[in-house]
Amino acid sequence: MNKIIGILTGDGDCPGINAVIRAVVRKSLNLGNEVIGFRKSWKGILEKDIYPLDINSVSDIIGKGGTILGSSRTNPFKYEDGPEKVVRHLRDLNVNVLVAVGSIDTLMVAEKLYERGCPVIGIPKTIDNDLPLTDRTFGFDTAISTVTEAIDRVHSTAESHDRVIIMEVMGRYTGWIATYAGIAGGADCILVPEKPFSIEDVCALIRRRHQRGKDFSIIVVAEGARPKEIDHFVVKTNRVDEFGHKQLGGIGSYIAEEIERLTGFETRVTILGPVQRGGAPTAYDRTLATLFGVKAAEMADAGEFGKMVSLKGNHLVTVKLSELIDKVKPVDADLYDIAEVFFG
């Protein structure tokens, strides 16, 4: 009996999502199943906003950034009868399985719906690489490549003008992007959420560089990093989305002002923002996303629900969505210790 598989993409866009969609569609068709897409994440199911998916609609999208299905921060549990409406609309559309591609918020919605009897499968997606139970998420490799290139570019300006340059990168609760790109770009200091820091210690590092003739410094900071001098995240606004998250941002400017005040050294800030998640995915991310999509299509065909595709070493495995609850994957302490070797 042929199955109808629904697919949605939630949370922030990410290089590699279209490769996942393509893989789910191609493998499902090979297995004799149909696939329909839902626009704008859970909003698409709530509104029955369907995006037709067939072999032609996914042709030539493997290298395209963003998501052809669109995304949003819609949380069905914030709407009256939202979860019930999701289940009902999937039934009305004869959808046998739902594949949810997203980060922790999307996957937790999927888990809650599974507890209500909805047949769901998760595919982990985030440039932050902070999802537990999988060694890598697609999008991360593209993001760190983009940030590394940006560090290379500002390096020449910093050196030419004897400036301290702060580069603020994404990473709400973890510093994976900051650490990997900082190492690759030769940053002089990397500041991450996992390790609170002292502004004075950063200033001391910069002063030591000046004493040995290095009159410039590159400091990479994750948006969720927190100085010991303050007890809260630096945010752009106190508004929260439907999952209760504030929009982080501004830690780079805070650090820059403090460095100039305490050292007198000219300091500039570069905030990469959405450029980190935009553009074409790297070859690694295209391949990983394709493997995830094929595996999810096989799980859908086999009736393996309530689970997420995961990469362990070089092997694809499945893990229960319920194991993701209230977890985050911090940067490996040993990796950060290696990064510190090159500070200053």
UniProtKB/TrEMBL annotation:
Pathway: Carbohydrate degradation; glycolysis; D-glyceraldehyde 3-phosphate and glycerone phosphate from D-glucose: step 3/4
Binding site for diphosphate: 12
Any Gene Ontology CC annotation: 6-phosphofructokinase complex
A Gene Ontology BP annotation from the UniProt entry: canonical glycolysis
GO molecular function: 6-phosphofructokinase activity; AMP binding; ATP binding; diphosphate-fructose-6-phosphate 1-phosphotransferase activity; fructose-6-phosphate binding; identical protein binding; metal ion binding; monosaccharide binding
Record-annotated site: Important for catalytic activity: 125
Its EC number(s): 2.7.1.90
Catalysed reaction, written as an equation: beta-D-fructose 6-phosphate + diphosphate = beta-D-fructose 1,6-bisphosphate + phosphate + H(+)
Residue ranges of every copy of the Phosphofructokinase domain listed in the record: 5-299
Binding site for substrate: 126-128, 163, 170-172, 223, 268
InterPro entries attached to this UniProt entry: ATP_PFK (IPR022953), ATP_PFK_prok-type (IPR012003), Phosphofructokinase_dom (IPR000023), Phosphofructokinase_III (IPR012829), PKF_sf (IPR035966)
Pfam families referenced in this protein's UniProt entry, alphabetically: PFK (PF00365)
Main location class: cytoplasm
Active site per database record: 128
Methyltransferase listed as a keyword: no
Site entry (Important for catalytic activity and substrate specificity), positions: 105
Keywords, ordered alphabetically: Cytoplasm, Glycolysis, Kinase, Magnesium, Metal-binding, Transferase
Activation and inhibition: Non-allosteric.
Family, as annotated: Belongs to the phosphofructokinase type A (PFKA) family. Mixed-substrate PFK group III subfamily.
PANTHER family for the chain: ATP-DEPENDENT 6-PHOSPHOFRUCTOKINASE 3, PHOSPHOFRUCTOKINASE
Subunit structure: Homodimer or homotetramer.
NCBIfam families in alphabetical order: PFK_mixed (TIGR02483), PRK03202.1 (NF002872)
Stated name of the protein: Pyrophosphate--fructose 6-phosphate 1-phosphotransferase
Organism this protein belongs to: Vecturithrix granuli
